[in-house]
Specification:
Largest sheet: 21 strands, parallel
Oligomer: single chain
Number of strands: 56
Number of helices: 5
Shape: elongated
């Protein structure tokens, strides 16, 4: 861009020129007297009249006798000019100022002027963000920073001066405000690093402010956040807050697979006291937050490691959580408050070690969790914890699957909430600490919740020797509809301990777990029901260990008159089922009998109605005064009672032939609906 000159040029205006006009028509033939303008060159001229008025203009183009102008230059005012007023090529102040400088802004250089070449094309290299702040925006517009504090420390990058921004605040990374007010912006594609905000991974420099600034900038810029290999000390809690259109964040760590958690991207929160290490909130909406390849380290003074509140779509992959051991807290906690929602959250190939709780799902509307291919080691309370004592909570669709490994935990799965759609499939459970005798899996309605339903515990392997009578691998209470089948138990043949012990369950299928070849049968399955007639199905081989207790069996009299008061003691009563064939084994004692009891003897309360032909079977009886050793029983078709007969055959009279203390023992089989 060069100023052009010509000697003794003074031409006249042909038509009136108003203050807003940018085209001026000259007397015919006058345009040829002006220097020819090409490219970005220009002419400085002065408009004047006989009254002594002047206005300085810049002529930027000439077409015949028409000139294109920029009005009111060098502090003058755009005026109205009449035909005959003059356009003179005079020397002005700015012309002389430009001549005083060594032609930097007027000498053509590489398609532009020399001053623009320096401003826009000549980069400056500095070694720290502090040095970047000293760069003049009038001299450079590009700068390469070799480090945040010093060369090669992982910070820095390519920065440019944004001349259109006078208001942005310095965030320590992507926006740096220089001492002269210039805003320098970091050039990045799709990711920024916490080291570009001043974090140093030497386990000495405090990094909380740097990492928080990096998180905020990544969310605002909709870019990923990168954590390089290093041990980052964090003594103040971090927060990830999504709102409005600012949603979505992936935090990618370096080498997060280290099995010992000694190298890689390590965020160390062990110095935090009485607060959560990281909080994730999104205003009861989708957070779309992903943590990948990061090791999180806590201590007994940190509350929850990561606390997700009323936010959905939060995923963890290849992450390690260790030493969040404060009682009552978890490495990762999900909380859905009243009217809120937290869910659609996933764990893939993660590891939990020495935490109080590994994952804790808490509060109502906590739905859809997928936990797969992850390891849980040495949890003080529970590896996976759902609900809490006396908490009313309903959750839906929780999947623990695809090769999760549980070892050394006080309890592997503790569910105190109502869960609809609970799948525990294809995992490994081991506890070599005999002091931990609690069931590996506990699912109960906690006395305040609805029953859990659609439960599947299938295809798992259990390696644990139970210690105390009454211990169980799986303890279930109040399950409606479910299946516990095709599991493998490497140990156990003591009938005082149980693979599954259930109470108040309805419409649930069970089988005895598989055992190693040649080993004794695994621990038995025991299921009780809320009362006779509840629909409980049991599928498995008909062995004495595969037993489901029968409650509500009783001696009764029927026929001539209702029986009087009587009590029955159930010494033994259980059934097994294969397909639609049910086998019942029982031993009953008539404890007391009213003198007014009459009618024929029946045993009521069988678990299923006989859907086949009338069934006859032998009995072992005592306390019956009727002669003849051949007593037998009959289950009529369409009935759930057994009738006692003698060999005559005649029904046994309740009042006449049965005395208090009489016992009856039998094993029989009948058919039910498939």
């Amino acid at each position: 861009m060069t100023q052009l000159f010509a000697n003794n040029v003074s031409v006249q205006i042909l038509n009136t020129v108003n203050p807003g006009d940018t085209t001026i028509t000259l007397f015919p033939g006058s345009g040829a007297l002006l220097p020819a303008i090409t490219g970005s060159n220009f002419i400085t001229a002065t408009l004047n009249d006989y009254l002594g008025r002047t206005e300085i203009i810049t002529i930027t183009a000439i077409s015949g006798d028409n000139i294109t102008v920029t009005r009111a230059q060098e502090g003058t005012t755009a005026l109205t000019w009449q035909p005959g007023n003059l356009v003179d090529l005079r020397i002005t102040r700015d012309t002389l100022v430009r001549l005083q400088n060594p032609a930097a802004n007027s000498v053509s250089f590489d398609g532009t002027t020399l001053d623009q070449q320096f401003l826009n094309r000549v980069n400056r290299v500095v070694d720290s963000i502090a040095e970047l702040k000293t760069i003049s925006k009038l001299t450079y517009t590009r700068c390469f920073v070799t480090g945040y504090y010093s060369v090669g420390d992982g910070g820095g990058g390519v920065y440019y001066y944004d001349s259109t921004d006078n208001t942005s605040t310095d965030n320590g990374g992507t926006v740096i405000v220089a001492t002269d007010g210039g805003r320098w912006k970091l050039v990045h594609n799709s990711a920024i690093s916490i080291c570009q905000f001043g974090a140093i991974g030497n386990n000495t420099v405090e990094c909380a402010t740097a990492i928080q600034n990096a998180i905020n900038a990544a969310i605002a810029g909709n870019v990923s956040l990168y954590i390089p290999d290093g041990h980052y000390k964090i003594s103040t809690a971090l927060s990830i807050t999504m709102s409005g259109t600012a949603r979505g964040l992936k935090i990618q760590g370096d080498s997060g697979n280290d099995l010992l958690a000694n190298t890689g991207a390590i965020l160390d929160f062990s110095a935090i006291s009485a607060s959560d290490a990281v909080s994730v909130t999104s205003g009861n909406a989708q957070a779309f937050c992903v943590f990948s390849g990061i090791t999180f380290v806590g201590s007994a003074t940190v509350n929850h490691g990561i606390h997700v509140t009323n936010s959905s779509y939060v995923d963890f992959e290849k992450c390690i959580f260790k030493s969040f051991s404060q009682s009552g807290y978890a490495a990762v906690r999900f909380t859905g408050s009243a009217g809120g929602f937290v869910g659609v959250n996933n764990f893939d190939r993660c590891r939990f070690e020495n935490n109080n709780d590994g994952i804790w799902i808490y509060g109502d509307n906590s739905n859809v969790y997928n936990i797969k291919s992850s390891s849980f080691l040495d949890s003080v309370n529970a590896a996976v914890h759902i609900g809490d004592t006396a908490l009313v909570q309903t959750s839906r669709v929780i999947n623990i699957e695809s090769g999760c490994n549980f070892e050394g935990n006080a309890r592997d799965v503790s569910c105190l909430a109502a869960v609809v759609g609970f799948n525990i499939t294809g995992n490994y459970f081991e506890n070599d600490n005999n002091a931990q005798t609690a069931p590996r899996i506990l699912i109960t309605n906690n006395g305040v919740n609805a029953n859990s339903g659609a439960l599947v515990i299938e295809g798992n392997t259990f390696q644990k020797t139970l210690v105390n009578a009454g211990d169980s691998m799986i303890l279930l209470d109040s399950i409606t509809k479910g299946r516990v089948k095709e599991n493998f138990s490497a140990t156990g043949n003591d009938n005082s301990k149980f693979f599954v012990y259930g109470t108040n369950c309805a419409d649930v299928e069970f089988d005895v777990p598989h055992s190693p070849p040649g080993a004794t049968p695994a621990y038995p399955v025991v299921m009780s029901r809320s009362g006779a007639g509840s629909v409980v199905t049991f599928t498995g081989p008909a062995t004495s260990n595969d037993r489901v207790p029968i409650t509500g069996l009783a001696f009764t009299g029927t026929g001539e008159a209702p029986p009087g008061a009587s009590t029955t003691t159930i010494n033994k009563a259980f059934y097994s089922r294969v397909g639609n064939q049910v086998t019942v084994t029982l031993q009953l004692t008539l404890t007391t009998k009213s003198g007014s009891s009459t009618g024929y003897v029946e045993i009521s309360g069988l678990p299923f109605t006989n859907q086949g032909a009338q069934v006859q079977f032998n009995l072992i009886v005592s306390g019956f005064s009727r002669t003849g050793p051949y007593y037998y029983g009959i289950i009529p078709q369409g009935a759930s009672v057994m009738q006692i007969w003698d060999s005559s055959p005649s029904q046994v009279d309740f009042q006449t032939f049965v005395t208090a203390g009489a016992t009856l023992e039998a094993t029989f089989t009948y058919f039910v609906n498939p």
